Amino acid sequence: MLILLLGIIFLHVAALVLLFVSTIVSEWTTGEMGTSDLWKNCTLDNMGHICNAASTGEWIQVVQAVMILSIIFSFLSLILFFCQLFTLQKGGRFFLTGAFQILAGLFVMSGAIIYTVMSPGWVPEKDTFGYSYILAWVAFPLAVISGLIYVVLRKRE
After folding, report:
1. Where is the signal peptide (predicted)?
2. Which of 139, 138, 143, 134 is nearest to 27 (CA)?
3. Three-state secondary structure call for residue 117
4. Which of 109, 110, 129, 150 suits a disulfide with 98, CB 3.0-4.6 Å?
5. For residue 125, what are the contacts with CB-CB under 8 A and spacing of at least 6?
6. Tens digit of pLDDT per residue, the chain (157 long)?
């Protein structure tokens, strides 16, 4: 049972770290002339490396919001898990913890989908998706799987 709990906690923390990194790091799209992410666009020209704030379009603000919500819900889910671990009755399920973690996964999926659909009008065609974007997509199944494990998991003595 201890190994199972440690595995679940490791999976949850891995998803949370991926959410943090994908939201903070400036590599959602990358190309020869620079990078862009949720917060700023950096370009390279003859004067050097120049960074400007991200577009003020509604879609990028929605992506920023759902990525932050995914981090908040995943963090709250981890706290709830530890609280329920000590207060839940024997045989009880971790429904609230699982629901919060599944919501975190759905938020990150929504953010990545919106970015995928809307970024071609904002990013040059030569640019490709960077590793932060890929980490967001990797965090999605990890968060959903850990949420489903929480829903199925029963507390034992």
Report:
1. 1-26
2. 134
3. helix
4. 150
5. none
6. 778 888 999 999 999 999 999 998 878 888 887 787 788 877 777 777 777 777 667 888 899 999 999 999 999 999 999 998 888 788 778 889 999 999 999 999 999 999 889 877 777 778 888 899 999 999 999 999 999 998 888 766 6
Asked whether the beta carbons of 77 and 133 are under 8 A apart, the reply is: no
Give the pLDDT score at 16: 94
Q: What is the DSSP letter of 121?
A: G
List of residues 6+ apart from 12 with CB closer than 8 A: 74, 77, 78, 81, 101, 146
Tell me the residue type at 31: G
- The C-alpha atoms of residue 105 and residue 135 are separated, in whole angstroms, by 12
Tokens of 50: 């120049």
If phi > 0 it is left, if psi is from -120 to 50 it is alpha, else beta; for residue 99 that is alpha
The residue type found at 29 is T
Report residue 94 as tokens. 């971790």
The Cα 15–Cα 138 span in angstroms is: 8
Query: What's the one-letter identity of residue 60?
Result: I
